[in-house]
Amino acid sequence: MTTPPPFGRALCAMITPFTKDGQNLDLDAAAALATRLTSTGRCDGLVLNGTTGESPTTSDAEKTALLRAVREAVGPSVPLLAGVGSADTRHTVELARAAEAAGADGLLVVTPYYSRPPQPAVEAHFRRVADAVGVPVMVYDIPGRTGTRIAPETMLRLAEHPRITAVKDCAGDLLAAARVIDRTGLAYYSGSEELNLPLYAVGGAGYVSTVANAAPAATRAVLDAFDRGETATAARLNARLLPLVELMMYGGLPGTVTAKALLGAGPVREPLQPANRGTVDGLRAALTVLNASQHQA
Description:
Pyruvate binds at residues 52, 208. Belongs to the DapA family. This is 4-hydroxy-tetrahydrodipicolinate synthase. Keywords: Amino-acid biosynthesis, Cytoplasm, Diaminopimelate biosynthesis, Lyase, Lysine biosynthesis, Schiff base. The chain is α/β, with parallel strands linked by helices and 297 residues long. Helix content is 47%, strand content 12%. The chain is built from 12 helices and 8 strands. It has helices at residues 27-39, 60-74, 89-101, 119-132, 143-146, 152-158, 174-183, 196-201, 216-227, 231-250, 255-263, 277-294, and strands at residues 10-13, 45-48, 80-83, 106-110, 137-141, 164-169, 187-190, 206-209. It has an 8-stranded parallel beta barrel, surrounded by 5 helices. Helix 2 (60-74) links the parallel strand 2 (45-48) and strand 3 (80-83). Helix 1 (27-39) crosses helix 2 (60-74), helix 3 (89-101) runs parallel beside helix 4 and helix 9 (216-227) packs antiparallel against helix 10 (231-250). The two termini are 27 Å apart. The model has no long low-confidence stretch (mean pLDDT 96).
């Protein structure tokens, strides 16, 4: 990147803690986690109310309450992005305005899902949201969940909007990402941990990571080493992180479930179900090995 990333490099897609019965937010736990993730400099900023934050099963009022509580906990200097995606453009605009009013520094806006709009409609959706607010927008491209890819040509046009400044990239197409990075000023953040280093190496801005809930220092260390010019070290640290990434993100359970299991951070809301004991033990063993390896670096 020739200019500093707009929200820092290391962003955590933070979980949303609930009370033991899952009926209410645990705002004290959320504030404590947000402070822990950001106070030591391991995470530059946080993304709230995203997929990892269980946005499909939290109410609009809960989303606002979480954002306000975390803002109060971490203060004004920590970048906070709010997930405001929905399948309904009108509702997305309402969520975007509410998040801006609650103190969000930026908005994470996912492609409308289920209805599978064509590319002109996808573009119009993002422009409609960006026109409605005064804070930057991070476009979230995750076709595996939404059913619709943001085509590179669409991304090029979106980059012309003054408030569309960043992308959370979960498309898994490094060639397309590199081409858009080269032709625009968009800050590309990896949303797939196994691609954090490759995307960064071709000009990406950093990452938005679920794994960072449990391993923020190890996740960040990869980019720190690359920035120092220690590319071999970065590759080695990246390889050490991959076993945990594979278990958390590709072991058959959503990252929300595995992150909460590792943190002991309360229940998930249905339709999600908690990890079983064997899975939890495996996750904790992998994290223990990773943490031990950090002291050997």
